[in-house]
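Student: Send me a single protein entry containing the residue sequence and its fold in token form, directly below this note:

Tutor:
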Amino acid sequence: MKKIFLLLFSLFTISAAFAQQKGLTDTGEQVILFDDGTWKYQNEDDNKESVIPTNSKVFIKDNNSNFLLKSNKLNVGFWLDPTEWSFTKASDNPEAEYELQLKGEDLYGMIISEKLEIPLESLKTIAVDNAKEAASDIKVVKEEYRIVNGIKVLLLQLNGTLQGIKFSYYGYYFSSKNGTVQFITYTSQSLLDSYKNDCEKLLNGFVEIN
């Protein structure tokens, strides 16, 4: 199961190398081209109001999250409970720094960080467009801004199907002059609700390090 989800996750990675193909129509309109032969106008979403709500709750790390896993690229860290989560340097996804697993369970995590700054409001569009190239039925099930340990992040839950597997990604997206972070948990759609508290506890360990 882990190898399958790592493969799926790698298809959705936002990377500095991410770039969709662009073209022009015979009337000079700019369009974005997808690998499956479909396309859309580049400014197609410009006239659609999409207001992402902000959760009024303040999120902080759990008291039992007493181990700080530090990024080697950015001044950020991830407090976690080492009795619950195992972690290793990423080997299956070259874009990632760390891979995580809830011990003995089918809930996984991935930390991807890069020095490129991406406007926070653009991360949703990039994540969804990238995901649709792999799973055309991808849907944003939940989206909101949160303040986590004093940091503004974007929470996204994406559900989709790839090669018959129904999966869910639930995680935080963050960007500043320091760089961009994807801190994601993932599992099957049928299991996410039972793991939601574990996801939240892990994700709320995200901090900036001065």
